[in-house]
Amino acid sequence: ARTEVASVIGIFMDNVTKDYSHHKGKSQTVDISRVLKTKTRVLMAGVRIIARWKDSDSKHVYALAELDLEQIKKVVNSTSSFPDHFKNYLNENGDDIFNNYATMSK
Asked: Distance between CA atoms of 14 and 60, rounded to whole angstroms?
């Protein structure tokens, strides 16, 4: 489950970066993209496994993971690798970008 969630976080943060680039200019996003690639593990702090179950027929084990956007914002804000202008952008626009991503993923 954590691998899948890490992928979702990566895609979400890529969407944040693209949206940020669109509004702020591409020149400021190169460093942010590089930092994001190395910080996915740190961003996983916003993920909790909230349920597990095993399918008795297939013997597959499943886990339900919850992604806490507020925790991701806290992690980004506490990490000195991210520039302040990106932190501000994520804090101001992260909810809308996340909601748009969640809607598109259905």
From this structure: 31
Confidence of residue 38 (pLDDT cuts 50, 70, 90): low
pTM: 0.63
Model confidence pLDDT, tens digit, residues 79-105: 888 888 889 988 998 898 888 877 775
Query: Is residue 81 within 8 Å of 55, Cβ to Cβ?
Result: no
> From CA 76, how far away is CA 83, in angstroms rounded?
10
In this structure, the dihedral spanned by the alpha carbons of residues 82, 45, 10 and 99, taken in order and rounded to 10 degrees, is -100
CA dihedral 61, 100, 30, 4 (to 10 degrees): 0
Report the 10 Å Cβ neighbour count for 72.
Answer: 23
Burial (CB count within 10 angstroms: exposed 0-12, middle 13-18, buried 19+), residue 96 = exposed
